[in-house]
Design a protein that fits this description.
Length: 551
């Protein structure tokens, strides 16, 4: 007991320190966990003697991860992601798999290993992408919504693949007959039917009763996850415990307490999934580094360059502008945690060797690191490459411009009409100012069109959007976008005009405000400071007991 406690202590402490460092470098923490495994494994002097225990903890990590996926997955969402996301997601999966399989065969891998590698290259990390888009405030942009949509399609396909693989839990690398395959599909269909029935008829009522005690709800959720995993992985059914975790989460997805359950399970998932990624790093094979490194570089280059190109081609055929296609394409420039889980399960089944697991893990390390910077710097990359991307845009591309085109003069351009922007818009309308709104949320644009407000979909840093919004003839530009990079690019674009245009922008803190003033902003709004002063003014001008009557 003392030995395993000591080993876990080393892993957790080292992973914690590295995750802080990687956070400062704006890198996903998955890389920190894999590096932890490499340090204590192949490159370390520590000889951990509890590999089986760590493998069990890793399986628990995957089980809790898939439990959370099932818990947060609403099958109805697949209908709401839109035709574009479904078409793009499925087409990208098909083309990436075919090309990836061909590359793996050319690199000398067996057909089965090449199939696993191709599948691993197909999926992109929803967790990483959503986090990066959220940091950039791009989740509600058109490309953000499309990207999240086809990532959801990828996740659904990944779950189906994992479920089929886990159905061959007893295969041990032997050949799979069509009868075996059909039996797996039949058992999978029956399991889904039972879980959907429980999800709709039983668990919503049951959790409503249990939810009166949060501690009991948490314990029940854990117990249900373990029980479902034990049943699903039993000999008569034959799936893996990881798929049992997913089905357990799916059964609770329709309950009104699913968010509360997810919030309590998340910390548990994060701990055990850390062990999974550490184990991947520990088991990486560096004895023949040349044999793994060169194929990893080739496959990583395909993911970083080929995957975005495939998405840009598909979206170009669907009549999307090159900028939207480019930004959406960058979101698939890395593999997924599901990719690592697929090869992990393949290794457990005896289908692929440790070398293949190390290869895919190394591809993950490379693509996680580089794609994060590519997505965060997508505006800069587009400025460099935009002129070469015309081949991905059809002449009848239409989505960037929504609204009627007319001549504006001495107007006010409002960038962002949500929250703060909506209040500003209401005030400008009451003062009868001519306003043109630019926003990258298509839902906001549709709402403004219904109100007969001149509006354009797009990013104000895009030169095309600046042209249609006619910044040259505007008298004032107000940006409610909190992104410092976008505001600096806006100021740079406005400064090119000979006419003096007043610019008001929003900053998150004093340092950003000083930087924006230095670049030529006429006024910088600090929302937290303005809100604090407004509350202080209310208190100073009115007695506290009268505040409730001010509405």
């Amino acid at each position: 007991m003392g030995s395993i406690f000591f080993e876990i202590t080393i892993i957790v402490c080292l992973a914690s320190l590295l995750s802080i460092l990687f956070r400062l470098l704006k890198q996903p923490t998955i890389l920190a966990y894999i590096l932890t495994g490499i340090i204590v494994g192949p490159f370390g002097q520590l000889q951990f003697g509890n590999q089986e225990i760590f493998r069990t903890l890793a399986e628990l990590g995957i089980t809790f991860l898939l439990f959370m996926v099932g818990l947060e997955l609403k099958l109805g969402e697949l209908r709401s992601v839109g035709k574009v996301a479904v078409i793009t997601g499925i087409a990208q999966i098909v083309f990436t798999s075919l090309v990836g399989y061909a590359i793996a065969i050319l690199l000398g891998f067996s057909s089965l290993a090449a199939l696993y590698i191709a599948v691993a290259l197909t999926f992109s990390s929803t967790i990483i992408i959503v986090k990066l888009l959220s940091d950039k405030k791009d989740l509600k942009s058109l490309y953000g919504k499309i990207a999240v949509g086809f990532l959801l399609v990828q996740d659904f396909v990944a779950i189906l693949i994992l479920m089929v693989l886990s159905g061959f839990n007893q295969a041990n690398g032997t050949a799979i007959s069509f009868a075996d395959f059909g039996l797996v599909l039949l058992k999978g269909f029956l399991l889904f039917a039972v879980i959907l029935y429980l999800s709709r008829k039983i668990f919503p009522r049951l959790t409503d009763i249990i939810a009166k005690s949060p501690e009991t709800l948490f314990l029940f959720s854990i117990a249900w996850a373990f029980f479902a995993s034990a049943v699903v992985s039993s000999a008569p059914i034959g799936f893996s415990i990881e798929i049992g975790g997913f089905l357990a989460g799916l059964a609770l997805a329709n309950s009104s307490e699913n968010f509360q359950i997810a919030a309590r399970i998340r910390a548990l998932r994060d701990f055990f999934i850390t062990i999974f990624f550490v184990l991947l790093g520990m088991n990486m094979v560096f004895a023949n580094l040349g044999a793994v490194f060169l194929p990893a570089l080739i496959l990583a280059a395909f993911v970083l360059i080929g995957n975005p190109i495939i998405v840009m081609i598909i979206m170009g055929l669907l009549r999307y502008r090159k900028r939207t296609s480019f930004f959406a394409g960058l979101t698939v420039a890395q593999i997924s945690e599901f990719s690592l889980i697929v090869v992990f399960m393949g290794n457990k089944l005896g289908h692929v060797s440790n070398e293949v697991v190390a290869l895919v893990t190394l591809v993950g390390v490379i693509t996680f690191a580089l794609s994060s910077y590519m997505i965060l710097g997508n505006n800069t990359l587009y400025r460099w490459l935009g002129r070469y991307l015309n081949i991905f845009e059809r002449k009848d591309a239409h989505e960037e411009r929504i609204g009627k085109h007319k001549i504006f003069k001495e107007h006010i351009v409002l960038v962002g009409a949500n929250r703060i922007g909506q209040s500003i818009l209401d005030s400008l309308k009451s003062l009868n100012h001519e306003v043109v709104v630019v926003d990258f949320d298509p839902d906001i644009i549709k709402r403004l069109e219904g109100q007969n407000i001149d509006s354009f979909f797009g990013d104000i840093t895009d030169l095309d959007i600046q042209e249609v919004a006619q910044l040259v003839s505007a008298k004032l530009v107000i940006s409610t976008v909190p992104d410092i990079e976008d505001n600096l690019l806006l100021l740079k674009g406005v400064k090119k005009n000979k006419n003096r245009v007043k610019v008001i922008v929003v900053a998150q803190d004093d340092e950003e405000a000083r930087q924006l003033y230095k670049e030529g902003a006429d006024y910088v709004v600090l929302p937290h400071l303005a809100g604090g002063r407004h509350i202080a003014k209310i208190i100073s001008e009115n007695k506290i007991e009268n505040i409730g009557r001010l509405r």
